[in-house]
Amino acid sequence: MSFLAAENMTGGYGAADILHDCTLTVDKGEIAVIVGPNGAGKSTAMKAVFGMLNLRKGQVTLDGQDITALTPQDRVAKGMGFVPQVNNVFPSMSVEENLEMGAFIRRDDFRATMEQVYDLFPILKDKRRQPAGELSGGQRQQVAVGRALMTQPKLLMLDEPTAGVSPIVMDELFDRIIEVARTGISILMVEQNARQALEIADKGYVLVQGANRYTDTGEALLANAEVRRTFLGG
Amino acid sequence: EDIKLGVILGFTGPLESITPSMGAGAELAMKEVSDSGKLLDGSTVTSVRGDSTCVDAAAATAAAERLVTTDKVNAIMGADCSGVTGAILANVAVPNGIVMISASATSPGLTSAEDNGLFFRTAPSDARQGEIIAKVLQDRSISSVAISYTNNDYGKGLADSIQAAVEAAGGSVSISAAHEDGKADYSAEVGALASAGGDALVVAGYVDQGGAGVIRAALDTGAFSTFMLPDGMYGNVLEEKFGSELDGSFGTVPGTDSAGGATFLEMATAAGFDGSSSYAGESYDAAALIMLAMQAAGSSKSADLAAKVMDVANAPGEKIYPGELAKGLELLAAGTDIDYVGASAVELIGPGEASGAYREYEFKDGKITTVGYR
Amino acid sequence: MDLLNALVALLNFVVIPATAYGAQLALGALGVTLIYGILRFSNFAHGDTMALGTGFVILVTWWLQSLGVSLGPLPTAFLALPFGIAATAAVVLLTDRGVYRFYRRQKAAPVILVIVSMGVMFVMNGVTRFVIGVEEIRFADGARFLINANEFKKSTGLAEGLAFKASQAQTIAAAVLVVALLFWFLNKTRTGKSMRAYSDNEDLALLSGINPERVVAVTWIIASGLAVIAGTLYGLDKSFKAFNYFQLLLPVFASAIVGGLGSPLGAIAGGFLIAFSEVGLTYAWKKVATYVLPEALAPDGLAQLLSTDYKFAVSFALLIVVLLFKPTGLFKGKSV
Amino acid sequence: MNTRNILLFAGMAALIVLEGSTTFGGIFGGSWNTALFILNFGLLSAIMALGVNMQWGYAGLFNVGVVGFIALGGLAPVLIATPPVTEVWTAGGVGRLVFALIVGLGVIALAIVLNHRLKGRVRLAALCVTLIGGFFLYRALFDPAVEVIEAFNPATNSNLGGLGLPVLLSWPVGALLAAGAAWLIGKTALGLRSDYLAIATLGIGEIIVAVLKNEDWLARGVKNVIGIPRPVPYEVDLQASPAFVDFAAGFGAEPVVASTVVVKLLYAGLFLAILLLLTAASELALKSPWGRMMRAIRDNEVAAGAMGKNVTGRHLQIFILGSAVCGLAGAMMVTMDSLHNPGTYSPLRFTFLIWVMVIVGGSGNNWGAILGGFLISFLWLKVEAWGPAALEYLTAGMDPASPLREHLKDSAAHMRLIALGLVLLLVLRFSPRGLIPEK
Amino acid sequence: MIVVEDLHKHFGGFRAVDGASLEIAKGSITGLIGPNGAGKSTLFNVIAGVYTPTSGRVIMDGEDITGLPPHELFHKGLLRTFQIAHEFSSMTVRENLMMVPAAQSGETLWNAWFGRKRIAEEERALAKKADEVLDFLTISHLADERAGNLSGGQKKLLELGRTMMVDAKIVFLDEVGAGVNRTLLNTIGDAIVRLNKERGYTFCVIEHDMDFIGRLCDPVIVMAEGKVLAEGSAAHIMENEAVIEAYLGRGLKNKVKAEAEAEEARHESHGAQPGLGDEAGQGGAA
Ligand SMILES: Nc1ncnc2c1ncn2[C@@H]1O[C@H](COP(=O)(O)OP(=O)(O)OP(=O)(O)O)[C@@H](O)[C@H]1O
Ligand SMILES: Nc1ncnc2c1ncn2[C@@H]1O[C@H](COP(=O)(O)OP(=O)(O)OP(=O)(O)O)[C@@H](O)[C@H]1O
Ligand SMILES: [Mg+2]
Ligand SMILES: [Mg+2]
């Protein structure tokens, strides 16, 4: 049994289904990457896993426990962390407060984690007292990821964490994701910088029109010419 | 026959705290008449209330429209504020030929309103009171006053006429400034009034509205210690609210030395409302006049009774006091003329408004005591 | 030249009343600004919440007085405050359950909530009048003055009196204390921060494990507390009359907005700005000028910039001017 | 319009017809007079709601100074239709007043010119001198002129009087007055957003009403102007006319009832014609690229600006149009009441109630605003009777002498607001985006 | 075409743009890169009239356009997209496009009332054009969807689509690529080149995807800390040490050692796993 298993998810926002029998699984300490064209339903799938979407069919289990009926904040309590694609910071709160909010459910001392985040994204330390809404696009993205890291989740879900960040930060970020995974945390992320992401991925999903098209190791997907051409930009 | 009388007052809105007593006053008269069984061969009178809101002409007109066309009231006691009274008069009463007697609309403008002989009021026009007040001030050798008035047609009209009369009598008005009713704070007004100065402050407002607020703030800051209180400021609540702080202040209120006022107070207390509240007595009188005029006309129709209102209200005839409505009805039935005095010494002049006999009172040891009549 | 008398006159008629009035407005504005800051709508029912809460306080005060309880120089109403706050909070939380929560779930536009709060306002307005009536009620007891105008005159020998009411002092103290507490709460405590987070981005707050219902409940409870404190102090200083509390709504909103919606400090600044402009700009300087200027120069007129008829107009005009230079208020408020 | 909406309007019409034809246990009035009064009031409200909907629904402008524009419009019938007060003209009051106003405008114009021409400290100094000096100059000219005018017959006049022109002319004039004010205000305040614009407009509304209340020379201030001429015949004249009495008899109607109904019908016809015209114009505009542009601006001003739309200009345009419609309605209302009563202009009644109409009806949708106007008017006028009746019903089971029952009955009038609030909450509960939402 | 002279934009004490001077040549596709927070978007916003500069000038075709409001710049042929998508969320996707062209006769009230026929014709033409653009962006099935319901990437496409509705002189693209599928981004790149070649549009492109920059842009301007750090051809820039240091980085290579160590640990816990070996090194800035 995988650590996270979201099986046969079917559902959408209104009348029409966006997801069709979509299945995603992640093992402990594993990095899984979802790629696919725009509007394929990647973000929708993430939201479904996190309980922000009404599923008509399918179930989600975490660590063997069925969490299909739980609310998002209960899932947070179960150790899931999520960085949405858009609107992923608290704009009028300072960077530091944003990070603190990431640690909201933690009762222990989180200062060490915060230092780690600052090490990872040094620019945030400079901008500690600035409202996140005044940051540049890439800086916000760093705050968003930092906030999720503060939770110290068992499963970290990232929706396009590298959109708009500079290459050097992207590399740092991927490096850190590898490290995080190595501590036993499972990672599920959506990426459009797909080649770089698949390189570090243990498992890759190609989603098209809400359904699984290809599922394989990251390496294998990268090696698949058809996948490269149609989904990874050659 | 079951006769219906409309009672249109601002039960919600800025005057909501005095209208319950006004309504109760009018209904007291109706109950008295019904119980007597003497009106038009044992007719009973019931009241149908309507809410004028005091400020919203449309809502008031709608309420009056309902009373007249749905409930088919024979006449209306009301309305309270001059603005909505004018609206109801023009849009409902006159078109439908319904008699309307207001107990509290004192605006001089209504004197000349187009009314087809249907509109009366038991409250005097403010023009008259201005002259009385100027005399009172003169007799007390107060030559300079400041005026604070409530910013509506009553307050403004009264302030204008007081100012004119005071100046004509050789006195001076240091400032005449408005206050809005129901506002949070009157420090600005009191600051300006204090700065302008004067031997006394005339507060042409309402006792349970901004008027009291102005007095409170003026007393607290020591800006004025003597107040002149026109009719809108009269009420037993003054004693409660200010007690001996007002000692030396004085005021005028419609009334005569007849026993009517006192009798009415007792009746009101027995009926469980405050008869000294502004215009409660006038309301009783307004309702009583309508019913007496019906008896005199031998008909409950507005068209018939309109012509009789002045007759029953004025001399000659036997004087009728509150609580004596049965007697009045009997006399009228017997064809004897009456002169209704009522709670507020009703005497209608000109186009049907109270002539304005006033009682002058003064605060002594925190109590209202009558000084004399004018 | 009589500077001392001029100064006392100015203090007595401008500075002290305006400060007290400003504090009253600020206390009301704090509640409005809190609801706006966290729940993101202008709550029209706030004035009537103040009235209802004060109504409860009055009932308890009467009961306490009938038991012979008193606080000495302080008004008995202070003892009744906790009861009033509890009762009001209960009513408000029930209202949230029955009314607002539905629209929150719907993610309705703020303006819908504004209109809904008007519906609540009408209902609460009526309920208050059922509970306590429309009459004016005075429930202040304890010492009335810290400095009494006449005694001041006697003891100092000045021509001008100076009055400082106990209720004014209490209001000013309460306003300062409450704003400090609120500022501290919102910026330093975990719950306070979670409330701000919720107001910033509801979905993300959810993702951080913040329980939105708890945030909302805490907000309403604090707002009820603020409303009852503001209403009671206002009632102690003036008197209780349900209709006036509704009328208080406009200047309270003006204070909250000109200060910057969502900012507690802004509410205080806004309250004082409105109060001082109302009282100060329409003040007739005649008296002060007579004391200060030599006799020959003393004004015959009132030396008044504008008549008090225009006091609201003046304060609103000033407010507009401030907004033209600071479009989201003095303290950079939110806007939805 | 789809079936649902047609049904909603049919329902509304049915309510009014029921009001006219049956009492149905006291729920309705059973009087055509009240029904028609409600209809007329609804028509007026619908026009006001249309105006507010233009500003909010089309462009997202949070104008809560509606009462000010309605009040300004209401000034027009007084200035246009009441008989002139020749005495103050001959006494020179009007001439001096006009001169003072021209001087006042001149000062402002000079200030604007200086503001453009000069720079830095000099500008500040020059502006201060001009404005302060100008203010005193203006007051020096203005105050005595006003004194002359207000001195004349304070009990019935003390104002400029009107021009004695037909009252219908005052309706477009009312719209123009409001539009002019809106232009001035829009030029300065439209840079503000959401609630900040709201409080600014609220303040401006209050200022306008304050001026109307306190400037007696203009329209007698709080002393009210009564007996404003009507565009329709007087009921008493109809009742006195044999032709009309015969005409009424033809329907088997009493002359009194017939005359009141006919007069109301005439008003209804006038109002309906104007409402239809405005609705047609609004619908055409909203369904055109102009409407699309307005929606784009409402959705995202920054992006609309980047796409070449002049956001400020369009905001000003719609602000003026919406305000003009409100002004028009204000003039119509004063004409129908034949009473100018500035004390009645409370923001609750003429700003927030109109907003309630727009939101309950469905903002952004003209039909919604109109339906909301009718429904809320109906309720506003009807709950006055329903509230106490409901209370009577509720307490029917109680011991008649119980003090609680007495207390409740004494408070019956306050059921009015409770009932209104409850109905409002119910409607919004079942259609949270309004009865006829924007698509 | 566009000359920026010593431009400053300060927020409070913070200098987001701190004396940048640069030039965008007519007919070029100029790339603008730099670390997060370098001031690129701020520079765009100043040029496009959203912010007024603290000091400095912006000149377009010899004319000083500093501080002109955005809508006037649009009429001068200057278009831009937003980094964070600014769609008209309650309007349909097609309407989002149709509202763009200037001087639509239906945008005056007079015509809206009295020129229905002319409007109808114009609208048909506009709708056709919009559908072509949607087709190109592969989102024609969404034409009648509310724009607020689009996915993150689709919104970025819509941003781009708006600039394709009119004939622009110069188009500023702020990270069109972020969140857009790479295959589609290639197509978009082709389109940019085509618009540049065939219609003579000038482009200024902010992008963090160096493949994209390398393929399209010449010259490339690098900003850092509000100033221009370097300028030159893409190939040239990518070898610039300062640029590599501040912006490009050296990929994951320097973590390879750590990776190797990790390999063993992983073998123990998971059994055989695909290694991240050397291949990972090719990522990043490649
Ligand atoms: N409104 C603002 N107030 C204060 N600081 C701001 C504001 N807007 C931007 N900044 C700061 O200015 C700097 C430049 O921001 P800008 O958005 O121009 O960066 P950028 O180069 O576009 O970065 P990215 O690649 O991440 O989008 C950032 O450090 C940001 O924090
Ligand atoms: N709130 C919503 N309501 C209705 N439809 C939506 C909503 N959000 C997304 N959609 C639709 O669902 C489909 C999938 O959207 P989703 O955001 O999951 O795509 P995605 O794979 O994440 O794309 P991208 O890479 O562009 O972010 C899209 O066609 C979009 O139009
Ligand atoms: Mg997505
Ligand atoms: Mg940027």
Automatic annotation (TrEMBL), chain A:
Is Cell membrane among this UniProt entry's keywords?
A: no
Q: Which UniProt keywords apply?
A: Amino-acid transport, ATP-binding, Nucleotide-binding, Transport
Lineage top rank: taxon = Bacteria
InterPro entries in the cross-refs: AAA+_ATPase, ABC_transporter-like_ATP-bd, BCAA_Transport_ATP-bd_LivF, P-loop_NTPase
List, alphabetically, the SMART domains matched: AAA
Q: Which GO terms describe its molecular function?
A: ATP binding
- A Pfam match is ABC_tran
Residue ranges of the ABC transporter domain? 4-234
The UniProt family comment states:
Belongs to the ABC transporter superfamily.
The protein here is known as ABC transporter ATP-binding protein
- Please name the source species: Albidovulum sediminicola
From TrEMBL, chain C:
Q: Where are the transmembrane segments?
A: 6-39, 51-71, 77-96, 108-132, 168-186, 215-236, 248-276, 312-331
Q: What protein name applies here?
A: Branched-chain amino acid ABC transporter permease
Specify one Pfam family.
Answer: BPD_transp_2
Q: What organism does this protein naturally occur in? A: Albidovulum sediminicola
Q: Which family does it belong to?
A: Belongs to the binding-protein-dependent transport system permease family. LivHM subfamily.
* Protein topology in the membrane: Multi-pass membrane protein
What's the domain of life for this entry? Bacteria
Keyword annotations of the record: Amino-acid transport, Cell inner membrane, Cell membrane, Membrane, Transmembrane, Transmembrane helix, Transport
Q: Does the keyword Transmembrane helix apply?
A: yes
InterPro entries linked: ABC_transp_permease (IPR001851), BCAA_transport_permease (IPR052157)
The cellular location(s) given in this protein's UniProt record come to: Cell membrane
Keyword S-adenosyl-L-methionine set for record: no
Automatic annotation (TrEMBL), chain D:
What is this entry's stated membrane topology?
A: Multi-pass membrane protein
Q: Name one Pfam family in it.
A: BPD_transp_2
Would I find Nucleotide-binding among this entry's keywords? Answer: no
Q: Write out the transmembrane intervals.
A: 35-54, 61-82, 94-115, 122-142, 162-184, 196-212, 265-286, 316-334, 354-381, 413-431
Q: Which residues form a coiled coil?
A: none
Q: Where in the cell is it found?
A: Cell membrane
InterPro entries given in the database record: ABC_transp_permease, LivM-like
Principal subcellular localization? membrane
Record carries keyword DNA repair: no
User: Which of UniProt's keywords are assigned here?
Assistant: Cell membrane, Membrane, Transmembrane, Transmembrane helix
The record ties this protein, via PANTHER family, to: HIGH-AFFINITY BRANCHED-CHAIN AMINO ACID TRANSPORT PROTEIN BRAE, HIGH-AFFINITY BRANCHED-CHAIN AMINO ACID TRANSPORT SYSTEM PERMEASE
UniProt name for this protein: Branched-chain amino acid ABC transporter permease
Natural source organism: Albidovulum sediminicola
UniProtKB/TrEMBL annotation, chain E:
GO molecular function terms attached to this record: ATP binding
The Basic and acidic residues compositionally biased stretches are 261-270
- Alphabetically list the UniProt keywords: ATP-binding, Nucleotide-binding, Transport
ABC transporter domain mapped to chain residues:
2-250
Q: Tell me the domain of life.
A: Bacteria
Q: Where is this region: Disordered?
A: 261-286
Write down the InterPro entries for this protein, in alphabetical order: AAA+_ATPase (IPR003593), ABC_AA/LPS_Transport (IPR051120), ABC_transporter-like_ATP-bd (IPR003439), ABC_transporter-like_CS (IPR017871), BCA_ABC_TP_C (IPR032823), P-loop_NTPase (IPR027417)
User: PANTHER family annotated for this entry?
Assistant: CONSERVED COMPONENT OF ABC TRANSPORTER FOR NATURAL AMINO ACIDS, CONSERVED COMPONENT OF ABC TRANSPORTER FOR NATURAL AMINO ACIDS-RELATED
- From the Swiss-Prot or TrEMBL record, give the protein name: ABC transporter ATP-binding protein
Q: What is the organism field in this record? A: Albidovulum sediminicola
Q: What is the lineage of its organism?
A: Bacteria, Pseudomonadati, Pseudomonadota, Alphaproteobacteria, Rhodobacterales
